[in-house]
Amino acid sequence: MILDADIKAQLAQYLQLMEGDVLLKVSTGTDDVSRDMLALVDELASMSSRIKVEKTTLDRTPSFSVNRIGEDTGIVFAGIPLGHEFTSLVLALLQVSGRAPKVDQKVIDQIKNIKGEYRFESYISLTCHNCPDVVQALNVMSLINPGISHSMIDGGAFKEEVESKNIMAVPTVILNGESFGSGRMSLEEILAKIGSAPDASEFADKAPYDVLVVGGGPAGASAAIYAARKGIRTGIVAERFGGQVMDTMGIENFISTKYTEGPKLVASLEEHVKEYDIDVMNLQRAKGLEKKDFIELELENGAVLKSKSVIISTGARWRNVGVPGEQEFKNKGVAYCPHCDGPLFEGKDVAVIGGGNSGVEAAIDLAGIVKHVTVLEFMPELKADEVLQNRLNSLPNVTVLKNVQTKEITGTDSVNGISYIDRDTEEVKHIELQGVFVQIGLVPNTDWLGGIVERNRMGEIIVNKHGATNVPGVFAAGDCTDSAYNQIIISMGSGATASLGAFDYLIRN
């Protein structure tokens, strides 16, 4: 049995929702993965009379396709879609059977209108929490448009293929044999990337807002909800709804919820925002802000939005080390997410730059997968919590280097080493390895503001207790501000504070 009793019980409930028959075409060999795959599809067929199984030969072995009877949908799983991808399998079964995907009609029309042949391949790892979004989006596109097909490829099951294509980050998407993109992508982002996004002219005639929120993370969502509840005209502009929380794995400090995961929390936020009359403008990047009669927000697409007040909640991003080789080898051995990309470095030597909580947690996670981990910390001592340091020091395949400065990440086609300076002796040393994970904190997404609002030396927006900046009518919240701590729950609170501050500003002005 591939599925345990609890998963089977849940799955049985989902399979009852199937609306039509589904044919699984299976291509297997004599290897262990093939044997397990065959056991999985047979188990699925035994649980529902709507699931049929047929042996065939596909482009990759082992793999199986999910089809309507008499019609190929172009959805293929190469490898066994368990772990984080089990949901992708369940959704594929339900959607191919006839249950409509939860996608706006506008998006469905966009997919239907795509002309030409699009052969997508996504390389994933079963421990990657970013990968299912991409897999499920491409599956939906394949289902709706017969010119689109998608194969999910588990890097763990197809190691030789992954290494021959030099894929060192997941998810990595190939389109018609050429590199398409890497990292989490939503359905809307994929459509925008292939040139099927809504025209920017749709922003031209929007009336001025009472409150315009810039940023769609926890702070932005909270600010927009609080504003909309006051019955005032509210808009939210987001480069990516959910922001950095989309890349967060386990969340155990969100009060009242013992455990959740970033994408799940973001889905709840989005659902809550949609309960109100909020004009959500997703996949839009802010370019500049100017105070005139109204406060004017310029977008990268050239559109200008006007509002009586603005709340900036653009969050933060991973801080780069800023050394030679970092950008050149990004996704070629330089990585930022140990959960996602760790399995691709199985049996290899890697480094983690950063000795704070995130760096030490990354090193502990990686030590269970890779051959050896070297932690590089700039300061004389690690900054991580003592309990994490104790766990790290108990691991036999971890070396900790303190008081060292990263000098260069080296490589040819991919990373082959890291050079550092011993700050005690000023001696330059080099370690041969195949991967570098950067974990040195966050930098606020405020570069686009120029000098319009006052910021501190770290680039964080300076706010008062009402969330107000030095510019009347401009407020800020969350990780882009000089808040003492960067936490989801603090961002949500500061979003509410800024929104109440903006409402108070509006009624007084």
Notes on the structure:
By secondary structure, the protein is of the alpha/beta class. The protein has 13 helices and 27 strands. Helix 3 (86-96) packs parallel to helix 5, helix 8 (218-228) runs parallel beside helix 13 (488-508) and helix 11 (357-367) packs parallel to helix 12 (386-393). Belongs to the class-II pyridine nucleotide-disulfide oxidoreductase family. It catalyses: a ubiquinone + NADH + 5 H(+)(in) = a ubiquinol + NAD(+) + 4 H(+)(out).
Q: Count of DSSP helices? A: 13
DSSP strand content: 25-35%
Shape, principal axes of CA atoms: globular
Helix share, percent? 25-40%
Radius of gyration: 24 Å
> What does the main sheet amount to?
8 strands, mixed
User: What is the end-to-end distance?
Assistant: 67 Å
Could you report the average pLDDT, rounded to the nearest whole number? 94
Q: What would you call the quaternary organization?
A: single chain
Strand order of the largest sheet: 2-1-3-4-6-5-7-8
Q: Uncertain runs with pLDDT below 50, 5 residues or more? A: none
